[in-house]
Amino acid sequence: MKFLETRTFFRKRQDNQRLIHSLEAKLKNANFSSGNVTLQTNNIQSLVFKLTCDFSGLTINSSYLEKAQTRHIMQFPTELTQRACKAREAPQELRLICIYFDMKYFFQDDDNSLLLNDNILGASLVNHSVSSLRQGINISFWHNESLERYDLTCVFWKEGAGKASWGAWSTAGCETILISSYQVLCHCDHLTYFAVLMKLSSTEISMELLAPLTYISIVGCSLSTVASLLTILLHFYSRRILGCFPRTFNLGIIEHSRLVAEGPPIPHSRKKNNSTTYIHLNLHVSVILLNITFLLSPSLTFQPVACVAMAALLHYSLLSCLTWMAIEGFNLYLLLVRVYNIYIQRYILKLCAFGWGFPGFVVLLLLLWKSSAYGRYEIQIKTSQENDANSQNTSICWIKSMEIQWVFVMGYAGVTSLFNLVILIWAVKMLHGLHCREKKWESRICRDITTVLGLSVLLGVTWSLPFFSFSDFLLPQLFLSTIFNSLYGFFLFLWFCAQKRHSDLEAETSSSLQMIRTGLQSNHSPLRSPQPSSLTCSASPVPPYGTSHQEGGVEEDMAHPET
């Protein structure tokens, strides 16, 4: 048993049949004086029982095995030894061999089927074949997570039924009874090796769709990573050349609202800090981290420790990205609703502490509470064959617990999407209200559509598409979600380019108006010094950790007749 366990990955599959039969032969000839004997290693446990013809039934549970990882029970009826005792040369002593495998390596079929807990329970009566039992054998399997999203099937190992493997899983003679969402009862009429086959019930992906979805994900994530890196480099390049961040991320709806409310842009009112720009930069960093961890995740599935670390890092990256999307919505709320008289001390520092610290706290709490929740997550892929049992799995390093996925992934994303959707509707409503105050707004339709689409991308509206993965929406949702979410960083880059073009055009207009205003001011008030242009960086820039919009400066400018 120790030999089988320590040399699992250095053998061919064809050797498994010989090794299993060799283990059965050694247990058959084992010498012991008591009624039973137990032999255990970390992943393989064996029990041998001495039976007689007056056998009254037997129940074996996981308490017999000290190293059993999960709970299980095997119940043998009194009918088990009747056929053997009726034989002409019935032995005085019968032996029942039970073997528990906590690894599916020895029983991997051609399709690498997904088994519950990777547990296989085997039983055999030495020198006798047991089949067609009227009472049957009951085998109960438990799982510590809910199994509601799986189709569960009790199967047994049929030798010689596989092509590349030495056997295949079959359902003949076994009945599946789902006792609860955590317990499965298998009722079988023969003795052999048993397991529970698992299939994703509602989110199966066909083999034909796996290749295009994988290709889209790889290309989209790679393109988003490059686009986000390019956006960050352009920002820092602009800061190095100009001495400050350019105003390339001023939202069109904000500038449009001020233009309608106050007339032409006032240079002094544009003395804003770089808070919005820093928020965008952090969002780009979180997108880069998410894309990189997602691309690296499938390559570490066969390294347990590294896979747990990668799964936790991928979860952290996703939560960070969603958190910064929510911060974008919060910042937009401040700009839309509380346009002036806003001051939050150390604004960016607090946002960074929340945007990066809160997801880290959640992941660290899960690791301390239940580290087994992270690891190798298998996604079942169905084939085009009619037999649903034929499936092949693909795996990534991700969250294995469905409860944690629903709460800390779907729930977290749902709250973020709902919050940002409310902010987006508020922004569209405000934009519509501004149109009602204008006489000619037909020329702004194209710009307004661009603004709404840009805000939708910025606030991550497309990340709510996975909530529509049901019924006839499953296939369109898979492709739309894969395309939009994998290209999220690229869409942010397009939004950056559009806003930079708008900012450049606005800067030219502002410079022309500034020259006119300066001439008028020199005629009316010679002692008044001209105010700096919107393209000029302040000698004492506002620190990036605070945000404020002072109303006094605007009132001072509005007091002049030329304003």
* DSSP strand tally: 18
CATH class of the largest domain equals Mainly Alpha
Helix content: 40-55%
Strand content: 15-25%
Largest sheet, strands/sense/barrel:
8 strands, antiparallel
Distance between the termini: 89 Å
Uncertain regions: pLDDT < 50 for 5+ in a row?
242-252, 256-273, 385-391, 526-563
Short précis:
The chain is of the alpha+beta class.
Topology of this structure?
Layout: H1 2-6, H2 15-28, E1 36-40, E2 44-51, E3 58-61, E4 72-76, H3 82-85, E5 94-101, E6 114-115, E7 120-125, E8 137-142, E9 150-159, E10 167-170, E11 174-180, E12 183-188, E13 193-200, E14 205-206, H4 207-242, H5 252-262, H6 275-296, H7 304-336, E15 342-344, H8 347-369, E16 374-382, E17 391-399, H9 402-436, H10 445-458, H11 474-486, H12 488-524, E18 547-549, H13 551-558
Parallel strand pairs: 14-16
Antiparallel strand pairs: 1-2, 2-5, 3-4, 4-8, 5-7, 6-13, 7-13, 8-12, 9-10, 9-13, 11-12, 15-18, 16-17
Helix pairs in contact: 4-6, 4-11, 4-12, 5-9, 6-7, 6-8, 7-8, 7-9, 9-10
Membrane topology: Multi-pass membrane protein
Family: Belongs to the G-protein coupled receptor 2 family. Adhesion G-protein coupled receptor (ADGR) subfamily.
Keywords: Cell membrane, Disulfide bond, G-protein coupled receptor, Glycoprotein, Membrane, Receptor, Signal, Transducer, Transmembrane, Transmembrane helix
